[in-house]
Amino acid sequence: MTNLPVQLPEVQLPETSRRSVLRALAGLPLLPVAGIGAGELLFASGAEAASAKGAPVAVEFVGMPAPTTAAAQAKTTVESSMVVTWADGSKQSFALGYQPLFITGDHVPDGKGGTILAGGYTDINGKPILDQSMATPAPFFSDCPDGCNLLAPIPGARVAGVTGNTLFAVVQFEYATRDSKDASMYGKLPSPIAVLTLDQNKETGALKLVQYHNVDTSPAHGLWITCGASLSPWNTHLSSEEYEPDAAAIDDQFRAYSKNLFGDETKANPYHYGHLPEVTVNADGTGTIRKHYCLGRISHELVQVMPDERTVLMGDDATNGGLFMFIADQPKDLSAGTLYAAKMEQEAGKDIDKGGAFALKWVKLGHATSAEIETLADSLKAADIVEVKKEDPKDPSFTAIPFNGKTQWVKFKPGMEKAAAFLETHRYAPTVGATLALTKLEGVTVNAKDKTAYMAVSYIYKTMSDGKSGIKVDKINAGAVYQLPMKGGQTDMAGSAIASDWVPVHFSAVPALVGRDLATPDALGNTADADLIANPDNLKFSETLRTLFIGEDSGNHVNNFLWAYNVETKTLARILSCPVGAESTGLQAVDDVNGFSYVMSNFQHPGDWEKGLHDKVKDSLAGLIDDAYRNRRSGGVGYIHGLPQAV
Fold it and tell me: 474-477: which pairs have CB atoms within 8 A and are 24 or more residues apart?
């Protein structure tokens, strides 16, 4: 694999013995990289940071090959490393590894002297939801831990059992794949979300779970399919609700969700879901939640707040998805603002075999407060807002729109523009000029120094390649990561100024981050090149390392990988492999927490066998997966750590 050199500013460090340096470096989580200041970059907080070798001048990731043995394929495998180059030209290498915090289904400390089921499901009253398919019903727990954020230290934090630094993380659970009889449970259970109290060793940075707290989601009407997450600049957990339920066509899935949450399959209101939940963590390791209703009701994969603390870009993991942007009225407050959707103007003939290139214009959908949209959600039904036809009504008062891969015809009720914009966003946006043609627009992150956002399009196909929704590029099943340069001084399609300096103006794939489909599967069964990304999903950027981390959710790689891509050198390194069939989730790059750096990394649904893709390996791996992960019913939460190794 290729390396990732990271150039660091030269600094002068006081001399000390090699023994002191190694003691400072030993056992650091993830990388021997600490605070943002150049003089602190290689040493733990409180350690005697010095080296007779002079200043560090470069850092590089050294990638690992894709695992080929059953033992390696069946677990989280990290055989990558990081190399530090010193001013005197010498190098020092540090092996990376993976440290789990728990797997779901474990009984973990509840902070009250007892234990609690990790990833366990509860109803609106906090009562465990039982798997009735079992001979003896037992509580459901998720196999799909997803969005995870390690928070910055909270002033005054104090939790019993912590002997080092008190840290908090928030983790959410997307869904449960199946019940004990292997019947699908996707979207039928309310998503749990938990605050983890972590004891950070002051000398090594190692993290230990000392308390697990389930957040009461009843103030937010429960949570629907929480997927990716991001940390806000004001240190809150920004959650997500993916694949918003269709209020115009309630289905059995949503009725089952309502039954499990409320005990009544008719009680859940679809307009309460598909929004942005925000979790605030308290100093005692508990958390509270509120849901913001004014960022559009779309397939929220996750959101990313820009450095202005107002501008928000959003993943929209849908077929016929769009690029959406929200600009809050006030910094650090997402409860009111203006919603925009992009009109994508394709540059004819440019890179159509590599994802295409597009100029972006922005359509204002409306301004609202969360409170007013929640009030509308409380009182309105779909029929109050829009009339929907699935066949052409031959009536010019209806508008044909692309919706979930098909054509629908819609007519909005007079005076319902605001309700339509914020509660029927996918149906309303194309009627006012926005392009809804993307497929599985997932992770979003920002490179602040270069004023560039990155967005993952997991699969480039269907509405991106059929030419029916306003764009047409060549099909790439392995997907790509796109880059979006951002500027100020922009106006919307009506000519009104957009009050942000962080407005995306272009959308094109990063050349090194375009997957490559294979004409025939390789020896393991991969249908996309295993030495390139395939189906990127989670994205997070480290400003300190100038590195974009990319987690896969691939139907084309036998094992999903976590990659590191250096934006300066344009080089790529595979740094982690998930258990076979598992998706790489919960990604977060943390540059500095009490002088230590972390990459949080979860995995979900190990052993999610796909016909064709896993045919060559399933027989040798199924038993190992079942033994390690409760018969495919557990997922893992953890982080990458690093240890010094001889040069």
Answer: 474/352, 474/353, 474/354, 476/354, 476/355, 476/514, 476/515, 476/516, 476/517, 477/515, 477/517, 477/527, 477/528, 477/535, 477/555, 477/556
